[in-house]
Amino acid sequence: MVLIQQQRSWSTRLEGKKKRLEEVAHLVSGVTIPTEKIVDVLELLIKPGDRVVLEGNNQKQASFLSQALVKVDPDRVHDLHMIMSSVSRPEHLDIFEEGIAKKIDLSFAGPQSLRIAQMIEDGRLILGDLHTYVELYGRLFIDLIPNIALVAADKADRFGNLYTGPNTEETPTIVEAAAFRDGIVIAQVNEIVDELPRVDIPGSWVDFIVEADEPYELEPLFTRDPRHITDIQILQAMMCIRGIYEKHGVQSLNHGIGFNTAAIELLLPSYGEQLGLKGKICKNWVLNPHPTLIPAIETGWVESVHCFGGELGMEKYVQARRDIFFTGKDGSLRSNRTLAQLAGQYAVDLFIGSTLQMDSYGNSSTVTKGRVAGYGGAPNMGHDPGGRRHSTEAWYNMMTSQDELARGKKLVVQVAETFQDANTPVFVERLDAIDVKKQANLAVAPVMIYAEDVTHVVTEEGIAYLYKTDSPAERREMIASIAGVTPLGMENDVKRTKLLRERGLVAMPEDLNILRGEANRSLLAAKNIDELVQWSGGLYEPPSKFKSW
After folding, report:
1. d(CA 495, CA 501)
2. Is pLDDT above 90 for 178?
3. Structural Rg of the chain based on CA atoms
4. What's the predicted TM-score (pTM) here?
């Protein structure tokens, strides 16, 4: 028997989109929204309760659109569910204060971490979840499919084709999630031109373009001035190079943002050269174009770099080093945050980063009391992906079992000085993230990197080779032995530490033939921004705030 079903529409999303577009037809010219009409258009296109994904990543901010969104009438546009990889600007949270938005799913909130924590506590904002970048991008195609996507690009032509230049970053992922599920895509651009240098996103994916009243905000987030690298960070960098990179033959890697990893980059042409390691380590990178990587590139250490995003001032240098970077026909960098995160998750041997807190077993988080910072891409790259099947020397070197089905492991390194600023210990008995879980009504504690994934911990005291043990008690002893004078470090037993060193579970600088007195700034290939410019042959053009001349 054939059941006759009541007729239904299978294109309700498309029909809803067409209706919205018709409502703004009198305000727009083709695909172009007049700059002064952006608020009026947003009030008609965005409906109460919509999921709105707003581009606000580590560096590139759709700042014109975010400033326009906070100006809409909350009687017309309210209860929005915002989806943002990075909450970085004041208006990102102003929209909650104004009642325009109600709920947020995010990955990172560094600059606004204190404010967002207070707003959660005050009930002004509902936190969906803290995500890794790849996790959040993935959910855009599953259960967080956006109704509206607000993105930024360098240029557009009059057909809506977009040129994103060096800072493509997450734009294609956001646009695709909306465009292919009948959402509405609005792109702010710095200028509208007749011909683009290259097409990064086709106009058929874009509904509207609007020329911003000023260029989108772009922060040189990954630039570290070598003047501020300390002797302690140089000592840690020497230990990483000798006790991890050389020991395990690390050739493909990701460096997190920070002075400790900048120190490693600047030691390769000096200390690394002394050790005869060129061609043996640090060849293939997934990394933003860090200026501190310039000396290593110029001296032949680096073979390739794939970037999450661009970096202000590095445009001409990247264009002149096409053999190293991924570039388009126009010569400018092609970055992609999603693909770089996946490369960092599956294709590299090592991730190295830092943290604000680590417990006695190696669990760590940047979410602390009163500060909901999130963790960006660190958990993507800072874990051992079970789906990996290709073998490299470093990955294979992590194998500790003789089982016939034994596999290698990705190196996940946490570098931290034992105390933060204001004498706050990094090593704690219990992560603040456990309390934040209750405060923010999260289902699980926001741990950045779980202990089971951490293979090495490095402090100014030494290295703990955590991958060599499965014993929680032994892990605690190993971490305590390098935790300095923190409460955990005071548990350290000198005799037990001697045994750990003899067994190769812990290494102090002396065990690696590193003299602490030689760890000083004389080893840095460049000691300031001016010297980085010289290394680049004048191609690196640092932002004014980094100039010391």
Report:
1. 10
2. yes
3. 25
4. 0.94
